[in-house]
Design a protein that fits this description.
Layout: E1 3-4, E2 7-12, E3 23-29, E4 38-42, E5 46-52, E6 58-64, E7 69-79, E8 82-89, E9 110-112, H1 164-173
Parallel strand pairs: 1-6, 2-9
Antiparallel strand pairs: 2-3, 3-8, 4-5, 5-6, 7-8
Biased composition (Acidic residues): 163-181
Family: Belongs to the p23/wos2 family.
GO molecular function: Hsp90 protein binding; protein-folding chaperone binding
C-alpha cells in the first residue's frame, strides 16, 4: 500500500511583545489514526508526522517551516480526526509569515484554515480566548467556548409553535386546480382538443 500525504491546514497570529500570542495553528488531517500508531516530531525548523489508520492506510508528511519555532513551548493534541498543533514562533514580530513552508513552491496539500485565520491588521481585535487559549476550540469546562446558540438563528421553523400555518396551507390547496392524473373520484376532467 502506498503512503498518503495528508491535507494540512494552517493559520497564524503574531506579536512583537507577547510570545504567547505569536504562534501557528497547524492541523494534520489524518482521520482514524490511533495515537499509538502515530509519530509526531516537532523540531525548530520542521514538523513531521507518520502514522497508520485503523484501515491500514499509511500517512506521512514533513513540513520544512518558513522560519524557526520554539518546540518546548508548542502544543500537540491527537484526536480521532487528526493532529492539532499550536507552534510558538521563535521570533517576535507583528508581520505574518508569508507562507508556512520554507520553499515558495505551492504545495497542493496545504490549505489556509479560514475558520481560525485573522487578518494581520485585525489580530488585536480577535478574542484572547480563541483557539490557543482553549486548545482545540473548547472552553475549560469542555463546552463550546460559551457559544449562545439562541443568538445564532432566526425564530425557528414555521408552524412549529401552534400549527396554525399548516391549517392555512390546507385551505389554500382547495383553490388550486387539479394536476393531470390527480383526478378526484366523482369529477370528470374534459379534454380540450
Amino acid at each position: 500500500m502506498s503512503t498518503l500525504t495528508p491535507e494540512v491546514t494552517w493559520a497564524q497570529r503574531s506579536s512583537d511583545s507577547d510570545e504567547t500570542r505569536n504562534y501557528l495553528y497547524v492541523f494534520i488531517n489524518v482521520p482514524d489514526v490511533p495515537s499509538s500508531s502515530a509519530d509526531t516530531k516537532i523540531n525548530p525548523t520542521s514538523v513531521s508526522f507518520k502514522g497508520t489508520n485503523i484501515k491500514g492506510a499509511k500517512y506521512s508528511v514533513t513540513l520544512d517551516l518558513y522560519d524557526e519555532i520554539d518546540p518546548e513551548n508548542s502544543k500537540t493534541s491527537h484526536s480521532p480526526r487528526g493532529v492539532e498543533l499550536v507552534l510558538r514562533k521563535k521570533k517576535l514580530g507583528l508581520e505574518y509569515w508569508p507562507r508556512l513552508l520554507k520553499e515558495s513552491k505551492k504545495a497542493h496539500f496545504i490549505k489556509t484554515d479560514f475558520d481560525k485565520w485573522v487578518d494581520e491588521d485585525e489580530q488585536d481585535e480577535a478574542a484572547d480566548d480563541d483557539y490557543a487559549a482553549n486548545f482545540g476550540g473548547f472552553g475549560e469546562d469542555g463546552g463550546l467556548g460559551g457559544i449562545d446558540f439562541s443568538k445564532l438563528g432566526g425564530g425557528g421553523l414555521p408552524g412549529a409553535a401552534g400549527g396554525e400555518e399548516e391549517e392555512e396551507e390546507e385551505e389554500d390547496d382547495e383553490d388550486l386546480p387539479e394536476l393531470e392524473g390527480d383526478e378526484k373520484p366523482g369529477k370528470k376532467i374534459e379534454e380540450v382538443a
